[in-house]
Amino acid sequence: MVEYSQANSGVNMNKKGILIVFSGPSGVGKGTVLKKFINDENLKLSYSVSMTTRPKRNGEIEGINYFYVSKDEFKKAIDEQKLLEYAYFVGNYYGTPIDNVNRLLNEGKNVLLEIEVQGALQVMEKVKDALTIFIVPPSMEELEKRIRGRNTETEEVIKERLDKAKLEMTMLNKYKYVVCNDDPEKAALTISNIIKRSME
Ligand code: 5GP
């Protein structure tokens, strides 16, 4: 893994926008909640599109959901220090292209990274003033129901994602805010208010 120090993390610390880290276990409904606040103009949000080696799911679009790359291309991006953070998650690599983040922050946008915990910890190390939000399910039973209901993964992957979810839940105390997704509308409103307060 590439080592960065706070001084040369590659993130422009004089930027105008806020860097927002949005995490939560697989299946918690991050995408559903996100859709409810991402286009609120008052929040000036820009979604950071990640790079991944995971295959495209039905309905996903290159450059909108992810940049889909090979393992070799991903490794090249790591070597060339083009990623703000990256992680290996249930068989695939995921990472945040740094240039895009810097460009958007400089334009005054609040940049939202929807990333898992290992990557989030890397961002917390490098960007001390990042706004970090962890979204939790009402219960682990409900989470399992949601992961199974999505019907996009094999049983093996479902089990791995559930194990990972349990592990991720132990890290929520590292985040500045924890929001429960018992109702996506309510969760989205809570998050909007957190972002608005941080902009003041
Ligand atoms: P999925 O395969 O369900 O799209 O994503 C799996 C996990 O990877 C999710 O928890 C998602 O938040 C996370 N993820 C997506 N993009 C990134 C990224 O750029 N970096 C990291 N560390 N995690 C990511």
Describe the SSE topology.
Elements: E1 19-23, H1 30-37, E2 45-47, E3 50-52, E4 66-68, H2 71-79, E5 83-89, E6 92-97, H3 98-106, E7 110-114, H4 117-126, E8 131-136, H5 140-150, H6 155-169, E9 177-180, H7 184-199
Helix pairs in contact: 1-7, 5-6
The protein binds guanosine-5'-monophosphate.
Guanosine-5'-monophosphate binds at residues 26, 50, 54, 85-87, 89, 94-96, 114-116, 118-119.
What does this structure look like?
This protein has 200 residues and is of the alpha/beta class. The chain has a single domain, classed as Rossmann fold. The protein is built from seven helices and nine strands; from the N terminus they run βαβββαββαβαβααβα. The chain has helices spanning 30-37, 71-79, 98-106, 117-126, 140-150, 155-169, 184-199; strands at residues 19-23, 45-47, 50-52, 66-68, 83-89, 92-97, 110-114, 131-136, 177-180. It has a five-stranded parallel beta sheet with strand order 2-7-1-8-9, with helices on both faces. The longest helix is centred in the last third of the chain and has 16 residues, at 184-199. Bound molecules: guanosine-5'-monophosphate. Guanosine-5'-monophosphate is lined by residues 26, 50, 54, 85-87, 89, 94-96, 114-116, 118-119.
The unique ligands bound to this protein are: guanosine-5'-monophosphate
Please write the CATH class name: Alpha Beta
For the record, the count of structural domains works out to 1
- Shape, per Cα inertia axes: globular
Reading the helices and strands in chain order gives: EHEEEHEEHEHEHHEH
Per the CATH scheme, the topology name is: Rossmann fold
pLDDT average, as an integer?
91
